[in-house]
Specification:
With 101 residues, the chain is an alpha+beta fold. Helix content is 32%, strand content 34%. It contains two helices and six strands; from the N terminus they run ββαββββα. The relative contact order is 0.18.
Length: 101
Amino acid sequence: MSNTFILDGHKVVPTDLDTWSRWFQRANRKVASDHIGDILISTVFLGLDHSYGSGPPLLFETMIFGGPHDQYQERYTTWEEAEAGHAKALEIVKEQKEVIE
């Protein structure tokens, strides 16, 4: 089983290392990116399986940079899960911002 993947639209496609490397250099891997004040919420396609053989491939990642949830991280298998995870991270930041204000 391949540990390298590319995107065909929003569909994940397993591939060999050479194809992945060429694709990765030019690909737009961003699923979503939002700023709330000085906090960045970013969700991207990683292209490498971060499950390390334990369960379904984890190919997308959401992270929060800045604020009380700095370095929050979740990983997902599909584009749709990544979009939902990004929305969840946005809510986490918005709720915390409301508590602080």
